[in-house]
Amino acid sequence: MATDTIPSGNYVVLTCTVHGIRTIDITTTRQWSMGENDELLCYNGRINNVRKYEENIMQGNKFSLTIFNVTESDLNEVYQCRYGFDAASKLIVADEPKLSLSLRLVTNFILFGGYIILTCAVNGISTVDKDVTRQWSMGNHDELLSYNCRINNRRKYEETVLPGMSSVLKY
After folding, report:
1. What CDD domains would the database entry show (predicted)?
2. What is the DSSP string of the chain?
3. Which of 3, 24, 62, 107 has its CA 20 to 30 A from that of 43?
C-alpha cells in the first residue's frame, strides 16, 4: 500500500490503473470506497455526493475519483478502487506543516543599562502551542535563560508568549 500526503483545502485525484486490459469496460463493476467501514463513494459512475466527488473513465485502462475541497475528515483514510473482482488501496494522510523559526532584534539601538528585546516567530503555524517546549538560551555553551516561561534569573530576563506565533525575550 502506498501513502500520499495532501494539504487540506485542495482537491485530489485518485487514479486506478487496471492491469491486464487495454480499455475500461463500462459494463464491468467499478467502485470507490473509503475508511475501515468501506464507505461507498461511487458505484459504476453513481456518486453518493456529487458536490464532493467526481468519477472519470480515462483513456486506456484507468479510471479516477476526484475529491473536492479536501478536509480533515477526508485525510488519514484508506481509499479503495475496485474493478470487477480486483482491488487496490492507498492511504491518504495530511501534510505535515513546514515549520521554521525566525529570530528578530526588536530594539534598534542597544544602550548600556537598557533593554534588548528579541522575538522568535514560528513560521508555518497559526498559533504557538503553549504545551510545546519553548526555550531561550545564549552563548557557546547554550546557557539556559528560559524554559517554557520559567526564567532562570527573573531580575534580568522576562519571556512573553504573544497571541499568534511568537515568543518574546526581554533582557
Report:
1. Ig (cd00096)
2. -EEEEE-TTS-EEEEEE-TT-SS--TTS-EEEEETTTTEEEEETTEES-TTTEEEEEPSSSEEEEEE-S--GGGSSEEEEEEETTEEEEEEEEEPPP--EEEEEE--SS--TTS--EEEEEEET-SS--TTS--EEEETTTTEEEEETTEES-TTT-EEEEPSSSEEEEE-
3. 3
